[in-house]
């Protein structure tokens, strides 16, 4: 359990984080989002104990990280965006070295992490020769060496190719079955795939803390219905005129006719009515596509007014 209570952090006269509070129970995969300079990295560094809050408190399983940093940090594994690895070391030697530093039995821990992180094929290669995807896996193995209850990952798939991204996502999902995982990332599709909950910080303040689906439900009511038919914009407008739920219509000329871009309330189902109205007018319907607000749209809505701190 992570408990962040009324936490603030100032640097001189600049307040990077302003009265942020949230709690994360064991077993959740949580996305921590925010624009550049919004305060999310500062928040992560305070949770890991790297920075001390100016005000407020952070507790890990009831242990205040400021009062008992060693005990609380034992429960946390952290992988920064560019994992600090020794490129000249062989993977197995490096993991054994980390095991010895942390007082673990290398003969037991290294084979387990090799299997868990999918490192079997590269255990006898130099870290400097590995692809970025495998280096991320080695970084994960390092973060998991102490068998932490909490795993904090900063941009875990940054710079990876699509196949590597899928591999790392699968690995994170598996790890998240037995641990609390916090992911900081700019890839919002990744959050939708991995995270059951989203926390958004903007301008140093917490602006949203919801389950992923609920976040879209709360802030993503609007949607767009794209309708293409062999009709003019005037004919299409006349066909759908009077249908409840339509807020605005724009038109685009296309090869086979016209596309109507209809802004609607995301909670209102108008597709059957629109299709029926167009067909009853004798037009051919080529496309009818509903595009709901994405997490990216919600993110822009929640952070546009706050702005990133400089």
Structure overview:
The structure is a single chain. 34% of the residues lie in helices and 31% in strands. The protein is elongated. It has 310 residues and is α/β, with parallel strands linked by helices. The strands form three sheets. A six-stranded mixed beta sheet has the order 6-7-8-3-9-10, sandwiched between helices. Helix 3 crosses helix 4, helix 5 runs parallel beside helix 6 and helix 8 packs across helix 11. The longest helix has 14 residues.
Short description:
The protein has 11 helices and 14 strands. The chain is an alpha/beta fold.
Which secondary structure elements does this structure contain, and how are they paired or packed?
Blueprint: E1 2-11, E2 14-24, E3 29-33, H1 40-47, E4 55-60, E5 63-64, H2 69-73, E6 76-79, H3 91-101, H4 106-116, H5 132-144, E7 150-154, H6 162-175, E8 180-184, H7 188-194, E9 197-202, E10 205-211, H8 212-219, E11 222-229, H9 233-240, E12 246-254, E13 257-265, H10 271-280, E14 285-292, H11 295-303
Parallel strand pairs: 3-8, 3-9, 6-7, 7-8
Antiparallel strand pairs: 1-2, 1-4, 4-5, 9-10, 11-13, 11-14, 12-13
Helix pairs in contact: 3-4, 5-6, 8-11
Descriptive keywords:
single chain; about 300 residues; alpha/beta; four-stranded antiparallel β-sheet; 14 strands
> What is the SS-derived class?
alpha/beta
Oligomerization status of the protein chains: single chain
Q: How many β-strand runs?
A: 14
Unreliable spans are: none
CA-based shape: elongated
Mean pLDDT across residues: 87
Q: How does the major sheet shape up? A: 6 strands, mixed
């Amino acid at each position: 359990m992570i408990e962040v209570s009324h936490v603030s952090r100032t640097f001189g006269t600049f307040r990077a984080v302003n009265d942020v509070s949230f709690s994360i129970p064991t077993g959740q995969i949580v996305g921590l989002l925010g624009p550049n300079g919004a305060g999310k990295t500062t928040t992560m560094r305070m949770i890991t104990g790297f920075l001390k809050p100016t005000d407020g408190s952070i507790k890990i399983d009831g242990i205040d990280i400021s009062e008992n940093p060693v005990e609380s940090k034992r429960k946390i594994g952290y992988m920064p965006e560019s994992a600090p690895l020794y490129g000249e070391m062989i993977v197995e030697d490096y993991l054994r070295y980390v095991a010895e530093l942390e007082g673990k039995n290398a003969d037991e821990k290294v084979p387990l992490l090799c299997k868990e992180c999918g490192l079997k094929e590269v255990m006898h290669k130099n870290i400097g020769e590995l692809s970025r995807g495998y280096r991320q896996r080695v970084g994960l193995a390092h973060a998991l060496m102490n068998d932490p209850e909490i795993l904090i990952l900063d941009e875990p798939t940054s710079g990876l190719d699509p196949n590597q991204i899928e591999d790392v996502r699968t690995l994170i999902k598996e790890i998240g079955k037995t641990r609390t995982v916090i992911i900081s990332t700019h890839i919002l599709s990744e959050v939708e795939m991995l995270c059951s909950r989203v926390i958004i910080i903007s301008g140093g303040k917490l602006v949203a803390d919801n389950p992923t689906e609920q976040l879209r439900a709360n802030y993503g009511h609007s949607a767009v219905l794209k309708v293409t038919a062999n009709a003019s914009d005037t004919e299409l407008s006349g066909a759908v005129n009077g249908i409840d739920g339509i807020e605005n219509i724009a038109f685009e000329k296309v090869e086979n006719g016209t596309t109507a871009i209809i802004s609607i309330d995301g909670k209102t189902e108008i597709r059957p009515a629109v299709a029926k109205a167009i067909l009853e007018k004798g037009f051919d319907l080529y496309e009818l596509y509903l595009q709901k607000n994405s997490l990216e749209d919600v993110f822009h809505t929640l952070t546009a007014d706050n702005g990133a701190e400089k």
